[in-house]
Specification:
Blueprint lengths: L3 H5 L3 E2 L7 E8 L2 E8 L1 H9 E6 L5 E7 L14 H6 L9 H11 L18 E6 L7 E8 L5 E7 L6 H16 L3 H13 L2 H4 L7 H11 L8 E4 L3 E5 L5 H21 L4 E2 L5 E6 L2 H10 L10 E4 L4 E5 L5 H20 L7 H10 L22 H5 L3 H5 L3 H21 L11 H12 L2 H9 L2 H16 L2
Parallel strand pairs: 3-11, 10-12, 12-14
Antiparallel strand pairs: 1-4, 2-3, 4-5, 5-8, 6-7, 7-8, 9-10, 13-14
Helix pairs in contact: 6-8, 9-11, 11-12, 12-15, 15-18, 16-17
């Protein structure tokens, strides 16, 4: 693995974004499955950019491998990863129009079609081209090594006050002069992660959607020296939490067990065999907050972790109180991930989503203890709580939000441990009926109403919930 960009220029890797997925519910031979489709340009950027770094003065450095031509934008329709890979067109070493289109897509400044070259092409390269023109706020370079037929790309966005000529000399002497030694190693790493030569890929069967997602996830941290990848059958965990390798192994093992518990507790008619849980764990809260901002979740700065349905990844950080708390957090967010897939990415009522996410924090059997003090005084709030959307659920003071979370947890505990004891089991199929109705109506409030069937049954539920917690 090469780490030149980080070691020569910066030490802070920028969070690499996963592509934004659109969910399609597909039925084949009587079986429902979720099919993720993507904007082709989004997939192209994910597969092309190898890494980016930044420093405290605002400089940014980006590396990319220009293996695939930019997909045409006209009449672009979302595609699966498999369809995208099967339709990629490689950029030939003399395909200069395709080369410029790729440079134009990645450049931090408007590139000029009339490129320039160094006074002397560095040893080890067939060609080096600068596309920044007279703009002195960034260095934009495409380069072709002697032993390769694939162009690479680097862009260095400079800080205010930088001497451009001095930075250009540093780029050529400290980056280009040393980059050539390890280009082949980088490409071998990319090929191993599923980003190999598109022409060779077409000659053999393509991996399935799960493995293509796994390859994208691995590629997103391949050049970051502090990041590690741990794979399970249904999980890929990316982390930069240092020496805690045994913890990441335990996470993948635990998540496999938890996923089975999620599916048994909240069943779904959707086949999840193409699903992969990607978990990205940052070492610090600062890095986590940067990822929040990058993924348009800046309104969740109060959180310790989140599941991003659009990016299809679970994001967390190692808290000061250690790995056990992190494991609980991952179980919580992994349930959100499971339920998102189980409901075809249709937003699920927070009473169920947040309630069961808390329920599973301690493991598949639920919490050992729930504080029941004063719970029955909030019984009248249950129907309104169960009609809330996320804006309503997350709103209010910290104390008000904690109460909502607490009530959601008690609903889940009651459904699992109290409801089966109610005569004639009137709430036996609430979760199954909720999921079925949500998929059909795409409306969380209608799904709740369908799951409880009548107002009288909802009143009975509240009454039995209060009776259960009064006895605890």
């Amino acid at each position: 693995m090469i780490l030149l960009a980080a070691s020569l220029f910066f030490t802070n890797p920028s969070p690499m974004e996963m592509p934004r997925a659109q969910a399609y519910l597909v039925k084949e031979k009587g079986v429902y499955r979720l099919e993720d489709r993507f904007d082709k340009t989004d997939l192209w950027i994910t597969r092309t950019v190898d890494g980016s770094w930044r420093d405290d003065d605002g400089r940014e450095f980006l590396l990319a491998t220009l293996a695939e031509a930019v997909p045409p934008i006209a009449k672009e329709r979302p595609v699966t990863r498999s369809d995208y890979v099967s339709g990629t067109v490689p950029i030939g070493k003399k395909d200069f129009d395709a080369l410029f289109s790729a440079v134009d897509m990645l450049s931090p400044v408007p590139p000029t079609e009339e490129f320039s070259r160094p006074h002397q092409t560095p040893r080890g390269y067939k060609d080096v081209r600068y596309y920044h023109g007279t703009n002195e706020s960034a260095i934009v370079c495409a380069y072709l090594p002697e032993k390769s037929d694939r162009w690479a790309f680097a862009a260095w966005t400079l800080a205010v006050g930088d001497d451009f000529a001095e930075r250009l000399k540093t780029f050529e002497d400290e980056f280009l002069a040393k980059e050539r030694v390890t280009l082949d190693e980088r490409r071998e790493s990319s090929a191993a992660s599923g980003k190999g030569d598109s022409r060779r890929a077409k000659k053999s069967p393509l991996p399935g959607e799960r493995e293509l997602l796994r390859a994208d996830a691995r590629h997103s941290v391949a050049l970051y020296d502090t990041w590690r990848v741990t794979d399970g059958d249904e999980f890929t965990v990316l982390d930069d939490i240092g020496s805690a390798h045994s913890f990441t192994v335990s996470v993948t093992n635990d998540l496999k067990r938890m996923r089975a518990a999620y599916a048994a507790t909240v069943p779904s008619p959707i086949d999840g065999s193409n699903v992969l849980c990607v978990a990205r764990i940052f070492a610090s809260r600062g890095e986590y907050l940067d990822a929040l901002e990058a993924n348009d979740h800046g309104d969740m700065e109060w959180s310790a972790a989140y599941w991003s349905p659009k990016r299809r990844e679970l994001v967390a950080y190692l808290p000061p109180d250690g790995s056990e708390k992190l494991l609980e957090t991952i179980r919580h967010e992994a349930f959100h991930q499971y339920l998102s897939y189980a409901t075809s990415m249709i937003p699920t009522s927070p009473w169920l989503n947040e309630g069961y996410a808390q329920y599973f924090e301690k493991g598949p059997d639920g919490p050992d203890f729930v504080d029941s003090a004063d719970l029955v005084t909030f019984a009248e709030q249950l129907p309104s709580l169960m009609a809330m959307d996320y804006d309503e659920f997350y709103s209010g003071t910290d104390l008000e939000r904690k109460l909502k979370y607490r009530l959601a947890l008690t609903i889940a505990v009651f459904l699992e441990k109290g409801a089966p004891e109610v005569r004639f089991e009137p709430f036996k199929d609430v979760k199954r009926d909720y999921v079925d109705a949500l998929i059909k109506t795409k409306d969380m409030r209608k799904a709740t109403a369908a799951a409880f069937k009548t107002e009288d049954n909802m009143k009975l539920f509240v009454s039995e919930w209060a009776k259960y917690w009064k006895e605890q």
